[in-house]
Specification:
Chains: A alpha/beta (320), B mainly alpha (290), C alpha/beta (350)
Largest interface: A-C, 44 and 51 residues
Largest sheet of chain B: none
CATH class of chain B: Mainly Alpha
Number of strands of chain A: 11
Strand order of the largest sheet of chain A: 5-6-7-3-8-9-11-10
Shape of chain B: elongated
Distance between the termini of chain A: 33 Å
Number of domains of chain B: 1
Radius of gyration of chain A: 21 Å
Strand content of chain B: under 5%
Number of helices of chain B: 11
Oligomer: heterotrimer
Helix content of chain A: 25-40%
Number of helices of chain A: 9
CATH topology of chain B: MetI-like fold
Strand content of chain A: 15-25%
Order of helices and strands of chain B: HHHHHHHHHHH
Number of strands of chain B: 0
Structural class of chain A: alpha/beta
Radius of gyration of chain B: 23 Å
Largest sheet of chain A: 8 strands, mixed
Chain lengths: 320, 290, 350
């Protein structure tokens, strides 16, 4: 059940910025700063974080659209290129507005050169059925569908080439809540049916909690906490995890009556902090935080639960 | 599921087109003007009572009358017939130039946008050089260098229009390249040829078509300008610009000579411009209500 | 069953007006029917919407696409182009003043001064070519007679009120130099600069990160309390509504289907749509379990079925539903009204 599909080993990605007149970059944007991750077959791995944490770059690395500047990506596939597909956040711009839907769904086959129209239409019809689209609507164009239906088209397209892994990049953020529920249910049933592996990237903690087996919390290009969903959400060991989860609005709980704070500004990723990346915003500073933190396993936990914080990666003597 | 009405798609899209037209009286006017001028040019053999080239020195410089609707010129040729046949030259030039410039320019522009890097830079700087010379001056210089004839005039106008399309197509290509559906295609392993053929071309087309429609009017004006200075169609071929030039000498007493060809140019150019604006407004996505 | 008069339920639910007299609602939308004529028909965007906001209140409108919530917000400021819509009946009043019949000149005077709006995307709402400080002072000087220097002082004080650490530096910044959260604060500063009596916030936090969202909402609440501004918050996020709004209106397909005190509506949703919305949230389900999704889709507003608009998707659909239900107060929660024949008579389960 849990054999590894993919391993990320110390992945760093940096982008050149502001090239000077000779073409040499004056500064770098450090998008990913040492990401270590294994993805198991059939699981849903949730990646949660805010803007600038690097989750988009991570998606691009997984899709081979971006080469890591450092580190390695190892697929467990025996041969050939790994088949990774993506479902984007915005169902409107991820579908070519001037192609009919059946053609959009079967695009992966067109890329490979298989263009027999009858076969393609049949293939599209089969996929459409799986995602709950009426086969007679396949001749229409994307703008004639609702947001939820467009997302179904995108999912059908992702399924078309029988992928190993599907990266879901904020799959429900642009959808209405009632449609979100339908799409989440669809994703679940497709995963069971096809034994798919999902990497779910989102800033919506509720969706991640609902769908993921494991969670990785990212901050400034690093994973700061990783483990089984229930464990991470319950224990919230890393101070950033705690801050993030505290900020999530909970139904029925009013806003706290504390004072408004100055804006939590994410530090830019041009100049990386010397020590712990979260030091500036951390309420639990102490000695030793001036050093780069590493992702260490929590010894007491039954399953692999890692935290990038020397203060909270172990239990105190009194079990806290 | 959206309800589908059992109406033939062609009929419903025509009806929808008519609905759009009713909301845009300017475009309606433009369409009428174009239809009028194109029909007149196409049906010239039927409508022209006299032979446009027939010289009749006994009927020189006659004012408009029942026999000669627009009067006659200084060698007795019927101006109405000459305006009709001249329309064929001008409108033909306009459409040809707009079409050729847009096709050639778009191909270069898409190519430049998709390849990028050094090739792109070279092409754009080349286009910049062409654009830096005032277009009328450049057209005249080219036409003069190639020799006075209608064909050379067409080439000159086309060459000078191409950079606009190159820029437009390149801009479209660059922005389409960033769209999510192109990224998705890249994740399936699509190469640049696939992306251009399936995604860039069909999405870049609308603004190019709009530009092309607007350009027909400009091209007609340009052809008339060249004809005015003698670089377009040569005598005895009827050509609006040349007719205006010849009529200059007789402007005070024989006003009809320059006026009618001038009005013909005006109506044709305005007609195409109005239609171009209308097409642009129709294709504008902001027209749609949220 | 007679539908409750909106203003009666209002006075019960809202905070007592200062001098014990009936206060004029800051925003009073009364039975508004609005449509957008299109080819072969019209999109019926609002079908009998009645919404009130009393001075100093924080009210939310919750709905999904096609519910009419954004149209309501835009119409309150008359930001929709004149010739693209048609009002069949109904009115909108701002502190007693008729918005639908005001001239464009009067509207320009009202906008910014009496009412302000903040949007979802602060980047597109701010002028990218102008420093943010200048944008604030421009607005201040448009509606007051302060000099340039005084306006600048006022603007910097405003920025400081927004809990911006270095207001003088931010004053001279361009929008693209600022983060999303900062830009939203600038928008809020702009909105509050002339101390309007009503602020309409259209999905102000949807594009923001969750930690920033919390701060922005707290800031809005703090500012509104200080200046006595009422807030009308438009959103699709039930959790934000439950955190922030005192009262809530739930909209579906151009009608208000449920309204009341937020805690009551969320705790005990009466309309099947509200129940479906809340039931389908991942928060309310076991991880990994299928979510309760509402069957079907939002109806086509150009082609609404007769009767209750939610009929075709409703698990409780019945005979009476072929008549459009009016809003009816619940027996034991008079401040809480629902537009549903089936559920209006239900009493609370103990």
């Amino acid at each position: 059940m849990s054999d590894t599909v993919l391993t990320l080993d110390n992945i760093h990605v940096r982008f050149p910025l502001n090239r000077n007149w000779r073409g040499h970059p004056r500064a770098w944007a450090h998008a990913l700063n040492g990401v270590d991750l294994t993805v198991r077959r059939g699981e849903t791995l949730g990646v949660v974080g805010e803007s600038g944490c690097g989750k988009t770059t991570l998606a691009q690395v997984l899709l081979s659209l971006q080469q890591p500047t450092q580190g390695q990506l190892r697929w467990s596939r025996q041969s050939g290129r790994p088949n990774v597909q993506i479902v984007f956040q915005d169902p409107q711009s991820s579908l070519d507005p001037r192609l009919p839907v059946w053609r959009i769904i079967t695009e992966p086959s067109y890329v490979k050169g298989q263009t027999a129209e009858a076969a393609m239409r049949a293939h599209a019809a089969r996929l459409a059925e799986q995602v709950g689209l009426a086969p007679q609507s396949l001749n229409r164009y994307p703008h004639e569908f609702s947001g939820g239906q467009r997302q179904r088209i995108a999912i059908a397209r992702a399924l078309a080439s029988s992928p190993d892994v599907i990266v879901l990049d904020e799959p429900t953020s642009a959808l209405d809540i009632s449609v979100q529920a339908q799409i989440i249910n669809l994703l679940f049933s497709l995963q069971r049916e096809h034994q798919l592996t999902y990497i779910l990237i989102s800033h919506n903690v509720s969706v991640i909690r609902h769908m993921s087996n494991r969670i990785a919390v990212m901050y400034l290009g690093q994973i700061v906490e990783l483990g089984e969903t229930a464990t991470v959400l319950a224990q919230r060991r890393h101070p950033y995890t705690r801050m993030l989860l505290d900020a999530v609005p909970v139904l029925g709980t009013p806003l706290p009556h504390t004072d408004v704070a100055a804006i939590p500004e994410l530090p830019g990723n041009r100049v990386l902090p010397q020590g712990c990346f979260f030091l500036d915003r951390c309420a639990y500073r102490m000695q030793g935080c001036g050093q780069r933190q590493s992702l260490t396993s929590v010894p007491a936990g039954a399953s692999a639960h890692c935290v990038r914080c020397h203060r909270f990666d172990h239990d105190e003597f009194d079990g806290k | 599921m959206a309800t589908t009405t059992a109406v033939s798609p062609l009929f419903s899209s025509l009806a929808y087109f008519w609905y759009q037209l009713r909301r845009s009286p300017m475009m309606l006017l433009g369409l009428l003007l174009i239809t009028l001028m194109c029909l007149a040019a196409a049906l010239a053999p039927l409508l022209a009572v006299h032979d446009p080239d027939a010289i009749d020195l006994g009927s020189r410089l006659l004012p408009p009358s029942a026999a000669h609707l627009f009067g006659t010129d200084e060698v007795g040729r019927d101006l109405f017939s000459r305006v009709l046949y001249g329309g064929r030259q001008s409108i033909g030039v306009g459409i040809f130039v707009a079409f050729m410039a847009s096709v050639i320019g778009s191909i270069i522009g898409c190519f430049s946008g998709i390849i990028g890097r050094m090739v792109d830079t070279l092409i754009m700087r080349l286009m910049d050089i062409v654009l830096s010379v005032p277009s009328l001056v450049l057209t005249m210089a080219l036409a003069a260098a190639l020799g006075p004839s209608l064909f050379n005039a067409m080439i000159a106008i086309t060459v000078v229009r191409i950079p606009y399309y190159v820029r437009l197509a390149r801009g479209q290509t660059l922005s389409i390249r960033e769209m999510a559906y192109v990224r998705a295609a890249e994740t399936f392993g699509a190469g640049k040829p696939h992306i251009v053929r399936w995604h860039v071309l069909r999405n870049a087309l609308p603004p190019i078509i709009v530009q092309m429609t607007l350009d027909i009017g400009n091209a007609i004006l340009m052809a008339a300008a060249l004809g005015f200075i003698g670089l377009g169609a040569q005598q005895p071929t009827a050509e609006w610009g040349a007719m205006i030039a010849s009529g200059r000498n007789y402007l005070l007493d024989q006003w009809w000579y320059s006026t009618f060809p001038g009005v013909a140019i005006l109506m044709t150019a305005i007609g195409f411009n109005l239609v171009g604006d209308g097409v642009r407004d129709m294709l504008d996505p902001k027209q749609k209500v949220k | 069953m007679m539908p409750a008069r909106q203003s009666d339920t209002m006075l019960n639910a809202a905070t007592t007006p200062p001098l014990g007299q009936a206060a004029v609602p800051v925003l009073d939308i009364d039975n508004l029917y609005l449509e957008f004529p299109v080819y072969k028909g019209a999109i019926r965007a609002l079908n009998g919407v009645s919404i009130q906001v009393m001075p100093g209140e924080i009210v939310g409108i919750v709905g999904e696409s096609g519910s009419g919530k954004s149209v309501t917000a835009m119409m309150s400021m008359r930001l929709i182009p004149e010739n693209s819509y048609r009002v069949r009946t109904g009115s909108i009043r701002k502190s007693g003043r008729n918005i639908l019949q005001a001239s464009e000149k009067e509207m320009r005077h009202i906008r910014g001064k009496d009412m302000a709006m903040i949007f979802q995307e602060p980047m597109t709402a701010l002028n990218p070519t102008m420093k943010v400080g200048r944008q604030i002072t421009d607005l201040i000087r448009r509606h007051t007679s302060l000099s340039a220097g005084q306006a600048r002082e006022h603007a910097i004080a405003l920025l400081r009120d927004m809990h911006i650490a270095d207001p003088v530096q931010i004053f001279d910044a361009y929008p693209f130099e600022l983060s999303g959260g900062m830009r939203q604060r600038i928008m809020i500063a702009l909105a509050f600069s002339c101390e309007p009596s009503l602020l309409i916030a259209d999905e102000p936090t949807t594009a923001l990160d969750v930690t920033v969202q919390k701060q922005v909402l707290m800031l809005l609440r703090e500012r509104a309390r200080k200046t006595g501004t009422a807030i009308l918050l438009i959103t699709h996020d039930m959790a934000v509504v439950s955190q922030f709004c005192e009262r809530v209106y739930v909209m579906y397909a151009g009608s208000v289907v449920e309204q009341g005190i937020t805690a009551q509506v969320i705790d005990r949703p009466a309309h099947p749509y509200t129940r479906g919305l809340l039931g389908g949230l991942p928060e309310n389900a076991e991880p990994g379990a299928p979510l309760q999704a509402i069957a079907g889709q939002v109806p086509n507003l150009a082609d609404l079925p007769g009767g209750c608009a939610f009929r075709n998707r409703c698990p409780l659909q019945g005979e009476p539903c072929s008549q459009i239900p009016p809003l009816m107060p619940l027996a034991d929660q008079p401040g809480h009204s629902v537009a549903c024949w089936m559920t209006a008579g239900e009493a609370a389960h103990v």
